[in-house]
Amino acid sequence: MKSKIINIGMNHETAPVELRECIAADPETTRRILSALRELPSIREGLFLSTCNRIEVLFTTEQVAEAKRGILSLLSGLGQVPNEALSGCFYSLEGLDAVKHIFRVASSLDSMVVGEPQILGQIKDAYQRATQEKTSGVIVNRLMHRAFHVAKRVRTETGICESAVSISYAAVELAKKIFHSLEEKTVLLIGAGEMAELAARHLVSNGVSSMQVTNRTFERAVRMAEQFHGRPVAFDEIERQLLEVDIVVCSTASPEHIITFEQVKKLLRKRRNRPLFFIDIAVPRDVEPRVNTLANVYVYDIDDLKGVIALNVEQRKREAIKAERIVKEEVLKFGQWLNTLSVVPTITALREKADAIIQAELKKSNSLLEHLDEKQRGAVEVLVHSIAEKVLNDPILFLKGRAERAAADTYLDITRRLFNLDRNHGVKYGSESDDY
């Protein structure tokens, strides 16, 4: 009986976060789950993936119904949630559908934000834990490495990861277009909101050299500055800072404009027309809209950024079509490899029988070969092995070529009968084997 690949899981589309939280696992819980997978007699190989948006168990089995019951019971016990509450939230995929799913997950085609890069690292971590706990085997090993290969193809052959689809990341991508490079650029962070912090993190990771932070509550400015190894400045120093910085991120709760047209206009001559980029993600806006009309001054508010994101989402959807084609192609290739597994035991048995015959015949002929020196005897052994390989080559190629056909089992049965591969005893010679 062939092992079947199964994937049982839940994600952001099938289960609410409250339920996902019940089952989400820390590394120690993951180790216990993998240990439990090893103990389930119906499971041959297994891998457990837990992220903020999905919980999945990928496994191989020859007893599908029993294995599914065991996995559901395991997950139910982990989350202390009744089986009935879980059953409607799980999806169950089998065979090449499960293969396609893991390829799409690794390529970030099944993510809440299509194209996000974190999921591939999370899958690699899950696979590493499975190998450490010795729950992976031939099929899971091959499947995971092909999933990594598919993800790499999708990243390099499509533009699915190139377009920003978050407010903070879109702002940074626009900054890079204006300045070409963010290295050696300086940033002023006005306010300490969450999106401003995210934008600041993206800016730092893209090479900005220094950051000043200001807030009406100076203590908050100090805490934020510490996060980015920046310098806190007083709120009434904003105008002086505008002379020095290249990028300003605004995120306050002020009902009035923090940055005005006249304020920026009078600074331009002193700045010697160096570009000044405002990322205004405050509502109401912190930067007076007219500021955007000044030469070498660029202002993007939250609606502008949402417009950029909408365009980028459409771009990612177009690129996702190319990615789906790559996934489909790789699923077919993996299916072909899976089919060859059925002929491997017979091919192995053929080679083992040929080797046993060779060793038996060499032993029988030992008295005839004893006068040969080591080099000559080695040449004889190479010759007989070469003859055996050539004799077996056509049957082996035939079996591999028929592995995907409906009659594959018939061909395997005939081969095992023709070569007498299912005899429990060793190689024997007598009137039966010599009677041609």
Summarize this, please?
The chain is of the alpha/beta class and 436 residues long. The chain folds into three domains: 4-157, Beta Polymerase, domain 2 (2-Layer Sandwich); 167-309, NAD(P)-binding Rossmann-like Domain (Rossmann fold), CATH 3.40.50.720; 342-434, no CATH class.
Verbal overview:
With 436 residues, the chain is an alpha/beta fold. It has 3 domains: 4-157, 2-Layer Sandwich (Beta Polymerase, domain 2), CATH 3.30.460.30; 167-309, NAD(P)-binding Rossmann-like Domain (Rossmann fold), CATH 3.40.50.720; 342-434, no CATH class. Helix content is 56%, strand content 12%. The chain has 19 helices and 10 strands. Strands 7-6-5-8-9-10 form a 6-stranded parallel beta sheet. A 4-stranded antiparallel beta sheet has the order 2-3-1-4, with helices on both faces. β6 (210-214), α10 and β7 (231-232) form a beta-alpha-beta unit. α8 (167-179) packs across α9 (194-205). The longest helix has 40 residues, at 302-341. The chain is elongated, with a radius of gyration of 32 Å. It starts with a strand and ends with a helix.
